[in-house]
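Researcher: I'm preparing a figure for a lab meeting and need a structural model of a single chain. I don't have an experimental structure, so a prediction will have to do for now. The sequence is pasted below. Please return the structure as tokens so I can convert it later.
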Amino acid sequence: MNGAMDELLDRPIAPAAIRSESLPGVVVLPEKPIVSIRPSGRWSPLNLRQIWEYKELLYFLMWRDVKVRYKQTALGVAWAIIQPLLTMAVFTLLFGRLAHVPSEGVPYPLFAFAGLLPWTFASTAVTASGNSLVNNSNLISKVYFPRMIVPAAAVGAALVDFGIGFVLLAGLMFYYGIRPGVELAMLPVLVVLAAAIAFGIGMLLSALNVKYRDVRHALPFFVQLWMFVTPVIYPASIVPARWRWVLSLNPLSGVIEGFRACLFGRSFDWTSLALSALGAGIVLVYSAYTFRSMERIFADVV
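Model: Understood. Here is the structure written out token by token.
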């Protein structure tokens, strides 16, 4: 019996024959692996299908970021309203009352808040996503999943704050007697465009932050400078025409101007919106491929 068994094991037989006939109950591994985890090349495809397969993880990380942000706080999610509201009050006093910055016929508090709401979303999303990989180092070094989900979850968490702040904006519009028109239908497009810009910039900064920790220190300064070259506290119309093209290089400028246009029933600057969409596309593609090229070192360096 033992000799027959030894002879059977020495013969090159197919795995299916071993499982079904020769050795019942013995599990034989396939000749080729079912799933292969390999480091990505410099120009590897983005593999968006794989990211979609991990959508539950994206949802979990997004809500985890929201809960952690307001955990053990006395005011909770009210901070999503307090921050832009207090900033609006300061800007109204300094720029609306003292500096007399024009607001194109709209009450300056409402004008400022309509710019602050998308700006606060973009700046919060960029800051959180830029630090997301470093802040989740324990998860990245132990578990395999598409790393792009981490900065995407940070942007999704900022969208929750945006939704809360938009309720306050609707209340301000009702208070000042401003009713939006059909232009409001462009609002979802502008929100998606702002999220794409924030995700692209945050994804690039998160990858660089893993390798160069200077990014963590430079990021607040970068965001602060970014606000002054974005028409948040002033309309783009006050910039001289010959220099307005420089403002258009900032993809968020067209988004904020379009945000005000759809809320206050004004005509859209389609050239500025087209440049914003083009800039968002360029930033997204470049950031995604840069992220993929650096992804192989994340678990070792972070």
